[in-house]
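Memo to structure team: turn this sequence into C-alpha cells by end of day. - J.P.
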Amino acid sequence: MARRRRRPLPQGVFETEIRDLTHEGRGVAELEGKTVFIDGALPGEQVRFEYTALHRTHDEGRVVDVLEAAAERVEPRCPHFGICGGCSLQHLAPDAQILWKQKAMLSALHQIGGVQPEEVAEPLTGPVWGYRHKARIGAKRVAKKGRVLVGFRERGGRFIADLSRCEVLVPQVGAHLVDMAETIDRLSIPDRVPQVEIATGDETTVLVFRHLEPLTEADQAELRALGERMGCAIALQPKGPDSIHPLWPETQSLWYGHPRFDTRVAFAPSDFIQVNPDINRAMVIQALEWLDVAPEHQVLDLFCGLGNFTLPLARKAHRGWVTGVEGDAGMVRRARMNAEANGIGNTEYAVANLMEPEADAPWLQRTYDRILLDPPRSGAREIIPLVAGQAPRIVYVSCHPGTLARDAGILVNEHGYRLQRAGVMDMFPHTAHVESMALFVKD
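Reply from structure team:
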C-alpha cells in the first residue's frame, strides 16, 4: 500500500483569536473550521502565528506576535521559556494559572465523571520560584556546540535545552547549571554522563550523577569540588537505582519534616517524593482536616509510599491504627523504618499491587473509619470497588484531573458517596500539571 503523502505546512504568518486554553496550556483557535493548538497564546488574545504541524483532527502552531494581549499575560522570568520544556505557563500570571487549573479540574469532573463538588475549596498556593526539590535533568555533550548541556529537554523535542539557569529548581542547583555542565565536560567520559538526579531535603541536596562507564580518580575529584562549590552532596549511579552510592561526603542523609505532626520522612535520592515541600506540608494538613480523623479511628492509606500521609495520620489516630499499602516492597520497607524512627507504633504495612488487587488480602478484610487515596496518574479504578463502602469519608489526592473525574464518577454514581468538596493545589507552578484533592462522604 502506498504511503499517504504528508501535506506541506502552510507558509507565512496567520492571524487569529484565541478562545480557550488546552489542558497542556496551549491556546485554542478555530481557523477555517479546524481547531489549532497554539503554543504561547492565551484566551482572549489576538495573535499572529505560524503552523508547526498538521493532523487529521487538528493543527498546531506557535505564536509569532501578540497583537492584543490578555490582561493575565506577564513577562516570563526565565530567558529560556518557550524553548525549555520544563515550563509551559510562565507567560500566564500565577494567580491566573491556578484558576485555570481549578477550571480544568471542575470541567473534568463534570464532563468525564458527571459530578460536581458541593463546595470548591480555596486553592493551596505557595512559592512559585525555586520550589522544585526533586527533578531529573539531562546531560549531553553536543559536538556542534563543543560543550556539554545540562537541563530539561526542549519543548516538544528530544534534545537537551541549552540552559544557563533554571528558575523553578531549588536555587542551590538552578543557579549553577553552567558549572555542572562545565564540570561534566572536564571528565574523562563527558559523553557518558546522561543525567543528573536532584534530591533536596530539609537540610541536604544530593546530586546523583549517572555514568555509563567508570570514573577515574581525577573525575571523582572534579565532582567532589563541584559539590563543595555548590554546597551539595554528590552521589554516583553506575547502573540502576539500587547502585546509587555516596561519593562526597561519605555519609548522606535526606529527609523532610512535617512540623505540625512532629514527623520526619527519610528518603533515598531515587525515591518518589512530592517535588514542592511547601505545598506538600499544606496538602497533608488539609487532607487530615478533611478526613476529620479521631484518636480512635482505623485508617487505610492506599499508595502510601514512604509514609508521607501515614505518619501524620498515625499521630492523629494515636489510639487507633493506620494501615499503609504500597506496591513497591522497597518503599514499604523504608516506610516501616520511618515509622520506627519517629517512635510510631500504631502503623502496619502491606505490599500489594493496587492495580491488580487481591480481594482476599488480609488488609481488605477489615472495616475502616477513614480512607486516603493517593494514586499515580492512572488513578485508583481497580481498588475502589474493593474499599468503597468500608469508610464514610474518603480523601482522594490526585495528580491527573481525568482519572480523578473518572474515579469520582464511580464513587458517586456507583457507590453512593457525595463529592462534598474538591480543590486544586499549586504543586507545579508554571506547568500544566493539575494536582487536586477531593472529599467523598457517605451519610
